[in-house]
Design brief:
Strand order of the largest sheet: 14-15-16-13-12-17-18
Mean pLDDT: 97
Number of strands: 20
Strand content: 15-25%
Bound molecules: nicotinamide-adenine-dinucleotide
Length: 475
């Protein structure tokens, strides 16, 4: 497999100016699969300069042309879906099914925003005083810095690149250090279809924080679109304040999953499995806290246990495995210590609770008797651990579900009318009712509270990269 391991600046692949590299590790067997270029201060500034120089030309490019480039990239990703998926399996560790699922989801953002590029709305209004006409124009915000996490290395990149490019913004993509190879592949696809030099740049700076700050401090950079943890997002919001850079934030979650007494248990268990096990639990939308009504608690646990018994664990290169590796041994150990702490706190291990000796694997795990407010209940687990809390009254479940600083995702299973009523009371940007997955390019994705600012995907997603300009005309 031909893996790209250089920086991409001003339309050219090039090594970092200091010639240094870092290892990219396959977490399934801890082998080194690539040595990726480290971007220095010089490289980061070159990327900003290239994006700034390309900005006027790209903004002036016909929307139809930008649209067709995105569409062409979508077609290549469709043709090369398995290549795309395999890179993710290798550097992220995810299962083959998860990798194909992500590749499919990721390419949809290029198709969706190819369609949105030619549909940017403007506005025409009359002033109440009758002395002017008001035109509201939407223009690209300008050079955009896009920072992505390791858990969805493809979809988080295309969900930002798609709308930015559609809107007419030039970009600097900074992927997570764990997963730069997927980002490099996506950037190469955009180069192959003819996106002009400077419009897309790729850097992997070390040290990350100071060099990201260096780029944000350049007056040409007008937008930060960040997906990652709430902790880093908070720091970046401070960093954006200095130059008043517009910031969109997709941050951490701590999704509750409520099973009401009227739930169809087959549906609830199937949905819970998806909500928990998709991407091995390493999803910001993953169900993290299961609140199950006492009347159905034991039966739900029995069926969930039976379903988890069927989950096979192993390398994603073996396409039959359901659950791949975590992104690193450190991540595996973090999950193991969360489970250990839960047990000390009174939780019962019904299934799993075991880390692999080799590679970054952790068994599909089911815990009951978890205490609301315990460490595992307030921490984003990011692994295949189902932690169940029992409740007696719906109001109590809603109170516990909302008892968090996060507000990205929530799930409710129950009789539909009652479940929708509960969904409306939950403090979350997205609520799934009797469903285990919500991701859809047509839906506005994002959180409330400390889970984020702004929305990605949908018709809202492109607005994050556009600024309104009011032009006043005489009546
Ligand atoms: P992270 O915050 O550690 O890193 C995210 C990105 O920020 C990476 O590219 C990283 O290199 C970079 N980064 C780290 N420190 C930085 C700094 N000081 N300045 C600038 N950039 C910095 O997150 P992660 O561990 O890669 O990803 C997991 C987190 O992402 C979880 O909290 C998860 O919930 C969240 N996430 C959110 C969404 C969403 O849409 N809301 C989607 C996926 C992941």
């Amino acid at each position: 497999m031909n893996l790209l391991t250089d920086l991409f600046i001003d339309g050219r692949w090039r090594p970092g100016s200091a010639g240094r590299r870092f290892d990219v590790i396959d977490p399934a067997d801890s082998s080194t699969i690539g040595r990726f270029a480290i971007a220095t201060e010089r490289d980061c500034l070159d990327a900003v300069d290239a994006a700034a120089a390309a900005q006027p030309g790209w903004a002036a490019t016909a929307a139809r042309e930008r649209s067709e480039l995105l569409r062409a990239a979508y077609e290549i990703l469709t043709d090369e879906l398995e290549v795309f998926a395999e890179i993710m399996v290798r550097e992220n560790g995810k299962s083959w099914a998860d990798a194909i699922g992500e590749a499919t989801y990721a390419k949809e953002f290029f198709r969706w925003f190819a369609e949105e590029a030619v549909r940017v709305p403007g506005d025409y209004r009359l002033s109440p005083s009758g002395d002017k006409r008001i035109i509201v124009d939407r223009q690209p915000i300008g050079v955009s810095l896009l920072i992505t996490p390791w858990n969805f290395p493809a979809a988080m990149a295309t969900r930002k690149l798609g709308p930015a490019l559609a809107a007419g913004c030039t970009t600097i993509l900074k992927p997570a250090r764990e997963t730069p190879l997927t980002a490099a592949y996506v950037v190469e696809v955009l180069r192959r279809v003819g996106v002009p030099p400077g419009v897309v740049n790729l850097v992997t700076p070390v040290p990350t924080g100071p060099l990201v700050k260096l780029m944000l401090d350049r007056p040409e950079v007008r937008k930060l679109s960040f997906t990652g943890s709430t902790e880093v997002g908070r720091d970046l919001l401070h960093a954006c304040a200095d130059t008043v850079v517009s910031a969109s934030m997709e941050l951490g979650g701590n999704a509750p999953l409520i099973v009401l007494p009227g739930a169809d248990l087959d549906e609830a268990v199937a949905g819970a499995l998806l909500a928990k096990m998709r991407n091995g639990g390493s999803a910001c939308t993953a169900a993290n806290r299961f609140y199950v009504h006492s009347s159905i608690h034991d039966e739900f646990v029995r069926r969930m246990d039976a379903a988890l018994a069927e989950v096979s664990v192993g390398s994603g290169l073996d396409r039959s495995n359901d659950l791949g590796a975590l992104v690193s041994v450190a991540e595996r150990d973090k999950i193991a210590s969360l489970v250990d702490a839960a047990v000390v706190d009174g939780a019962t291990v019904v299934r799993g609770g075991r880390a692999s000796a080799e590679g970054a694997f952790y068994d599909a795990t089911l815990l009951t008797d978890v205490r609301h407010g315990s460490t595992i209940n307030v921490t984003e687990i990011f692994g295949p651990v189902t932690a169940v809390v029992r409740f007696d009254h719906v109001d109590e479940a809603v109170r516990m579900a909302n008892d968090t600083v996060y507000g990205l995702m929530a799930y409710v299973f129950g009789e539909e009318r009652e479940a929708i009523g509960v969904a409306r009371r939950l403090e979350a940007g997205m609520v799934a009712v009797n469903r285990g997955v919500v991701s859809d390019p047509a839906a506005p994705f994002g959180g409330v509270k400390q889970s984020g600012l702004g929305r990605e995907g949908s018709s809202e997603g492109i607005l994050e990269f556009l600024e309104e300009k009011y032009i006043a005309l005489t009546a």
